[in-house]
Amino acid sequence: MKGMASPLNRSPKIALAAMLFLPVFGYAQEPESKQADSYDVLLHSRSLEDQHAALTTILQDQQKYVPRIQQTLRSYPRLLRTDRVAANRAVYLAALVRDPSFPPILVKHLGSETVEFHECLYSCPIVFALAIYASFGGWEPPANLDSNLTTVTDLRAEIEAVSHISLKVGDIRDVVQGDFAEQHRKEMQKKTEEELIRLAGPSNRSYDMRLLATEWLQTSVTTSKNRLELYLLAINEARDASEEYRAAVYPAIYRAEKANVQHDSAAPTEAANDVYVGILDDAREDLRGEKTKAIEQRLVMPAFEERNGEWRAITHFRIRTLKWTVAFDGKNLGQVESQASSDEADQINSEGSRAKQTILTPSDKVPVVGKPSREFTGVSSLFGLESVRRPLVVVSKPYYRDPDDWKRTQPQEEVRGMVREAIRKQFPHVNRCKDEEIVERDWKFPDSALQFPYAYASNKNSFIVAVKLDAGDCGWGGNPEDPTDVFVNQWFLVAADHSVRRIGGFDVLLDAGDYDNDGRSELIFFSVRSENSDVYDLLSDNFQKKSELEVGYR
Asked: Structural domain boundaries of the chain?
């Protein structure tokens, strides 16, 4: 079977594969003149960092991108001839997004001459994607598929092979043999999954080492913690004569998907290594539409969970009672205990409501920081709420320290100058407005239009800086990708080596702390998102990953 090849002895093929290995790993041409959106970035960018950010954005609002993906999939055979990389990246994204409208589109291409005899001579993106849908997405292949097509035969064999995948660590010698593999065997045995992924990725210019690392992943992935990173390996696939790289990365993804399914089907109990992060907040649901100085009652909103090294937003919280550590500014402020109500709807987070648990701890024992203010009123200010107590982060384990020691600061002019340059590069096309009408397009805004409302410094000589661009009244806000949004600041990381990159559009930093005890700080931001919702963003892995939770207060 082509997708999951029999054990390979790669040494005779190295020369041929190297000769046919495409320059620059076969990347598509990157747009130059206009600011690309997340979908364009994912299909065309060479930057792994930009791809990861784009993929995160797409997964957070999948339905927004479904029509775009559908359009690309419909054009797949034609697009293979003009932009092969973008065509296949769209297929890999479709496998990850898993919308039910995608398989019928892909199935139609199984009989395409371009697909069957050019793209699918060996391991095949469409076969891979359909195998994902059949194995993990509840899709059943139509009974009337043409069995004379090689692609159909391969699809059925692939689905059967996935059903027999085990999550036990395999023997690399069952996958690859030869002098090259044996020469590096001890070296590869010592590497973590994350190190193997980096070695298999596009920053490695050695085809042979990329392939070998991917083959090790094919036998060693046992959890879903790096599922997205494995998909990014497929998105940045190394091309060779017989598609050996694909034949290795596909099984690695299947293993991660199987681990993900097994994890999601586990019983809803608090596992020993799981960490939950919540928000201790005023009960904004008690707002009745009239002007209110402050709300007396408080609650705990379960917000994020970390399992197998991966943070995600909580959509449905099933734990009934929990004791939390209140964390702020690297300090332990005390403990609170919370309990779920009997109403199942009270444990669901959505853009219209939020999960909420009653606080059992006496109110005079529940920590408070500062006095009520407008800073964190969010969307509730539109409905009469004039002030709230500062929301506080609570953690299900006593993890509160901030090893990066982020502290409020006033950025020096050198730092502000680097951020000014960065925001101009990030947003080259900005409109100036008046009374919600555009009065100047492609506005070359002066330095005086930029304000720096927040800045924090770490003990690693790095800074995060919020920038506010005063472009006039452009209308209602809540769009984190719009530099003119009045409800959002653009935040930039200035690293110790003076490199600068945007980390997102947020309003205000809520707290920083090592909530999973891995030695690195996570940061949580608070922002207004719409006329009915606020959003909490948790940034982790040195700002490389983001988990977003949008909630309302009905």
From this structure: 9-26+166-266, 61-164, 275-395, 407-513
